[in-house]
Amino acid sequence: MAQPYDTIFAYKVETPPFNREPLLCFVIVQTGKKQRVRSIGEAMSHPPMEEYLLPSSGQRHRVVCYDLETTGLELVDEIVQIGGSVDQARIFSKYIVPATRRVHPVAARIIGLQVMNGRKGLQDLRDNTPVDAVDEGSGLKEFLHWLEEVRGDVDGIILASHGAIFLDIPVLLIALRRNKLIDRFKQIVSGFCDTYAIFRADLKIRDYKLQSLYEQFIGRRPEKHRAQEDARDLHTILTTYFKTEQLSMELRPLAQATYTVRCMEEYTSWRESIEPHRADLMTITASWNVRGDKLKKVLVKNLLAAGYTYKRLADEFRIHGDQVFKNRLEQSILHMKMTYESYLTDTKDMSARVVANRVLEHFKRMRSAQPEWGGEARHMFNQSVKGSCHSDRCTLPDFLIVTEYACTVVTRELILCDNYAPQPTHHADHKAV
């Protein structure tokens, strides 16, 4: 059974806006002491704090590079192949038939795999040959069995993958949860390392893609997009980069990019809760005249990390008007950045002011195209709000703050509206988001 490590909770203490950086604090939790620590999810309704894994004295671990090929690039997509590598000799590979019996056409072209017409197996599109494959549960059990074997007599496994935070880790944890294997997994695996963060922190490196890193440190490499080969090549890149034959948590950059399993579970749950709102928010960027989608995605990530949905933005724009809406949005994004911004949120490449300006521009265009967003709609909304508040002390502005920001720290308004009981209405959803 994997032994617990001491952990470090990293959190930011909010400082006045004129300070360039918030104060970064660390709290070390000694696992050997009798001390109850609340889970990250219990204390927040926003992105999880980063919880890094550091080995305690006397504990040993083995770093295993792994990779997934999936049916697409969304959290709801399924695993098509699992690959793992401890060194050039110990390699794991297992193909999996997705339960949906379908690989997205774009993904199929990239990974060269598709479900066969009979839907009982996979087909290698590169040479039109069948591929031996198993169902998801069986494939995951074989992967866990292999991890147990390569763990040997060490205390736990560190799973390392490139860019894993954004897809591989959540997809793997969701699949394990779906097959009721998460408890067994946590007995074997102690943490996750996202190697993308290692190379992004190196100022000498400009291109962090696996293909580019291999060509920079090793030599030419055909783009393979097969899990076992990507896992093996990542292991080769890391051992070359660190000038070592064996990867370990003694390598400081590797340890600094390793999260606890608990942190990744909380992160996955948060991602699952916000993903349904991503597509709607992307419409805000539809008219942008920018090359590529990176900045568009960063804007949406800022909004999601601050707890916004498209409907909430639209409602607040109707209520407050241009300048107040912009100021409130900018302050909300700024608060998120000072409190929660991290590698997990991936929001650093855009300022709060730029986010607020871009969102305001979108809704001003919408208002110009739809005159009904004007006074009559606002009057109807305000009337429905007034009819929902049963407290004589509750004024309209206070009530609006509560309904829109009940999940944030607005204690004064919550006290004013302690008798609030929302009524169904087609004009607005009063439930806080």
UniProtKB/TrEMBL annotation:
InterPro entries: Exu_RNase_H-like, Ribonucl_H, RNaseH-like_sf, RNaseH_sf. It comes from the Eukaryota. Keywords: Exonuclease, Hydrolase, Nuclease. The keyword Hydrolase applies. Residues 62-247 form the Exonuclease domain. SUPFAM superfamilies: Ribonuclease H-like (SSF53098). GO terms for molecular function: 3'-5' exonuclease activity; nucleic acid binding. It comes from Timema monikensis. It holds the Pfam family Exu_RNase_H_like. This is Exonuclease domain-containing protein. Signal peptide: none annotated. The keyword Hydrolase applies.
